[in-house]
Write a structure and sequence with these properties.
With 149 residues, this protein is of the alpha+beta class. It is built from three helices and seven strands. It starts with a strand and ends with a strand.
């Protein structure tokens, strides 16, 4: 298993596809524990076109979505393929989300995530988002792995 996953590797782990596959890279992977995800927030990213014209900002809910995708990729990368194959990961709860600074394109958003615990198919995570070392957001969330219908 590689220490760095590119967008293609991530797409092989997650059911998300463009334009909703937000994570460009996963690095510093410690199996089922921690990782750093990279989101390249560009001026032409779909989510900044109307949010807000003339002063683009990445929506906070998509920062939370990126946290969730990073956590799902970390987990899928560390478990057997048959455990996540033909499955979806659903966000169950978001707690303590704080948006400290606006994420403005063009930037590299770094998400440091940690798996706090798992119980069966339910996982709990926490994460912090940074741009150039400045904290932009943080949150805790829970997710579960479910069968595709």
């Amino acid at each position: 298993m590689s220490d760095i996953l590119n967008k293609e590797d991530i797409a092989n782990l997650l059911p998300h596809r463009e334009p909703m596959l937000l994570i460009d890279e996963l690095r510093n992977i410690k199996k089922l524990s921690t990782a750093t995800a990279i989101v390249n927030v560009k001026k032409d990213s779909f989510f900044v076109q109307g949010h807000f014209p003339g002063q683009p900002v990445m929506p906070g809910v998509l920062i939370v979505e990126a946290f969730g995708q990073a956590a799902a990729a970390l987990t899928a990368h560390g478990i057997p393929k048959e455990t996540y194959e033909n499955k979806l990961v659903f966000l169950m709860s978001v707690e303590k989300a704080k948006f400290r600074n606006p994420v403005i394109p063009d930037c590299k958003l770094e998400l440091n995530i940690e798996a706090i615990r798992s119980h069966g198919k339910v996982w709990k995570y926490k994460g912090e988002a940074f741009v150039s070392g400045k904290k932009m957001a943080d949150a805790q969330w829970s997710a579960t792995i479910v069968d595709r219908k």
